[in-house]
Amino acid sequence: MTADNIHRIMSEGLFPGLKSGVSLVETHISWVILTDEFAFKIKKPLRFDFLDFSSLELRRHFCEEELRLNRRLAPQMYIQVLPVGIGGIGDGQSPAIDYALQMHRMDNSREMDKLLEVNAVDASDMKHLAALLAPFHLQNRLDTALPYLPGEDAHDFADLYAMESDLAALQAPDAGLLRKWAVTIPEFLNKHKSRSEARIRSGFWIEGHGDLHSRNIFLPKNETPVVFDCLEFNEHFRRLDVLNELAFLCMDLEFYGRKDLADCFLDNYTRHWACFENAEDKLLFTYFKAYRANVRLKVALLELRQQSDEKRSKSALAYWSLLKQYVLQTGCSSKIITWELLLARTPTTAGVLNMLLIIISLFTVLPLLASSPTTTTERNH
Fold first, then answer.
1. Does 112-341 carry CATH code 3.90.1200?
2. Distance CA 205, CA 201 (A)
3. Which of 34, 97, 122, 308 is the most buried (most CB within 10 A)?
4. Domain 3-105, CATH
């Protein structure tokens, strides 16, 4: 399938249902043809480290997986998988050249990200969303004998490291931090490995949504929220600690400047499921927010490679700023940034004395900060 094929389908009305209100939404991995009645999602023939839609059979398989998984949270929205032939979507007579996932059209004005942009999301929305998601997560808990492999989490985070040049092209401040995090992020995950293993044994790992942010949520008026577009292409990304799932939504709310809503959502959610047991869980949650900012940044940079515009550039820089903030809160940046600062000092006698004073202060102050019950991480959660 190519962009020309997509435009032919749209211009000639080669799809089921009404032919009015036709428009196109394009992401870095799919095309979505919208009509007044339906939405038809077609996967792009792409291959990345994290997904493989490169063959017709793979695209069919993942369309069927997307249908199955999304019927868990949005059965009213997802209809069927249709072949795409020469005659368009639903042409079962000619050989299939691709496959489309057919969905009922929702009211796009009620997309949560759009509502956040106009300050139209409130605490009651967070209460309803928490009431929907907590039972879903509890019903989809994973085997408590699963192994925890910190190297997998480190690898997921590391996908971004290869995009330092993309950040540099945007003139993102401190893009070189990516090379430092290649050391400190694995150290953090190994340090907290025993706690992550304990959380698996306690039943806090789920097969969740995997891509839980505001663009994948509808907030219909006076109705239950609709959470859609579950991540189908890689089960590794949806089999995770529930804190990782929740961190995505909370990070996204903070991206829109609504930490108050993030706190409100967590407060309501934990009334249904007390998934934070101690201070270390809060630190892991901050790391997961960093990882989720990493994911959205990576998506923004991939989209910029396909189509550059000011809005995407601003979003990428905003995610980069959030990512740095979260990583700093976990403590993953402090050591390296500090020593780099020291090594940059002029090696004069006065410089050496200053360096010694800074070293003494670091060994005195940092342990106090790490043990204080009012650290930045604790205040934010």
1. yes
2. 9
3. 34
4. 3.30.200
* pLDDT tens for the chain, residues 1 to 381: 999 999 999 999 999 999 999 999 998 899 999 999 999 999 999 998 889 999 999 999 999 999 999 999 999 999 999 999 999 999 989 999 999 999 999 998 999 999 999 999 999 999 999 999 999 999 999 999 889 999 999 999 998 999 999 999 999 999 999 999 999 999 999 999 999 999 999 999 999 999 999 999 999 998 999 999 999 999 999 999 999 999 999 999 999 999 999 999 999 999 999 999 999 999 999 999 999 999 999 989 988 998 889 999 999 999 999 999 999 999 886 554 444 434 433 444 444 444 444 434 434 433 433 433 333 333 333
Torsion (CA) 250, 251, 255, 259 in degrees, nearest 10: 40
Contact 212, 202 (CB under 8 A): no
| Residue 116: both structure tokens together | 């956040």
Local structure of residue 94 (DSSP, 8 states): S
Enclosing H/E stretch for 47: strand 47-48
Q: Which helix (H) or strand (E) holds 81?
A: strand 78-85
